[in-house]
Amino acid sequence: MTPANDASPRPALQAVREVLPDLNITMRRVAEEILADPLSAGSSSITALATRAGAAPASVSRLATRLGYSGFPAFRSAIALENGRNVQSGWERDIGSEITPDDSPADVLDILAGTAARALRDAAASIDVSSLERAAYVIARAERVHLYGEWGDSVALRELHMRLQRIGVAAWFLDSGPVTLHAVCNTLTDKDVVVVLNRSGRDDVSARLLHEARAMGATTVGIHGAPESSIDQGADISIFSGIRNGKVWTHYYSGRASDTLVTSLLWVLVAQRRSADESMRFIDDGTLGDREQP
């Protein structure tokens, strides 16, 4: 028990959980009410908390004193402080520290725009263009192109799928489970291309798809944010998007910007290659000269 300096060695809510089994019925109701809604407990008056718990204010005070606080106000402050820390910890764990809960909408816009700009600049300096050229070459000549990405990884690939179809590439987007993907692999030949986008680089389903597609003779392309990962090492053509996979949403946001840059560049290179091939076809069969006649 801590004397009345109110500096508990344990977090307030942890202390409540630890003493809960030893409390009398009335104090236990108070403790359970605090644990059920810590946010309200950290901002309520002693009377309001006691009313919700079906207890007297004196029971709330006795619980605070038993936990080592000088009274309910000090106990309530400790709960509120812990709530604030938990909220901030959850925010930073999910979103990151670049944006704070107190930033204005205009500030958030500036931060996101700056984050995207830096991601694109860093990606452009790191992307291996020669790998993208090789991927574009095989995609432009493939009989069929199969694209696979799950959840957020599918966003950039779905647009690539649509763009490839618009320029006449026979492309399919795969969004089924491992059994269906295995069945698709059984139909592949050396004239097919399989493109996988997996930001973590470590997805087992994606790695298995690459392995089985290669075994059937298809050319495989792996787009990822994790060099030396299973996707990097398992593809015939490995394309690092230039931004490493991260742990919080702002890192994810940067990675998605680089994914979109890679797939957009890949589509334009395929379009250029198919345009050049079409021009050569016209030259070979003499139709280009006919088109140039007035």
What does this structure look like?
The chain has two domains: 12-94, Winged helix-like DNA-binding domain superfamily/Winged helix DNA-binding domain (Arc Repressor Mutant, subunit A); 129-285, Rossmann fold (3-Layer(aba) Sandwich). Helix content is 62%, strand content 9%. The protein is built from 14 helices and five strands. A five-stranded parallel β-sheet has the order 2-1-3-4-5, with helices on both faces. Residues 1-8 and 287-294 have low confidence and may be disordered.
CATH topology (fold) name of the largest domain? Rossmann fold
Provide the residue-averaged pLDDT. Answer: 85
Classify the secondary structure makeup into a structural class. alpha/beta
Q: Give a short account of the largest sheet.
A: 5 strands, parallel
* The CATH architecture of the largest domain: 3-Layer(aba) Sandwich
- Helix content percent band: 55-70%
Unreliable sequence segments:
1-8, 287-294
Radius of gyration (CA) equals: 30 Å
Molecular shape: elongated
Query: Biggest sheet, strands in spatial order?
Result: 2-1-3-4-5
Q: Would you state the CATH class of the largest domain?
A: Alpha Beta
CATH superfamily of the largest domain: Glucose-6-phosphate isomerase like protein, domain 1
**In what range is the share of β-strand residues?**
5-15%
